[in-house]
Write a structure and sequence with these properties.
60 residues, 0% helix, globular
Length: 60
């Protein structure tokens, strides 16, 4: 991941349980947080996986 430790990135991700696709904020420590809503999908415990590992796009 590029940037400083305080920067978050955004990436496309999928829930491995239901295959829902959305955009997440990725923190330097690896935490993922859905953008635009509190839950990524309707799963009780979503297992999110980022599509790309080289995150170039910085959040404003």
């Amino acid at each position: 991941m590029r940037g400083t430790d305080d920067e978050s990135k955004r990436a496309a991700a999928t829930c491995k349980r239901c295959s829902e696709i959305g955009v997440v904020k990725v923190w330097p420590d690896g935490r993922l947080r859905p953008l635009g809503r509190s839950n990524f999908c309707d799963c009780d415990s979503p297992t999110l996986e980022v599509f790309e590992s080289d995150l170039d796009h910085e959040l404003p």
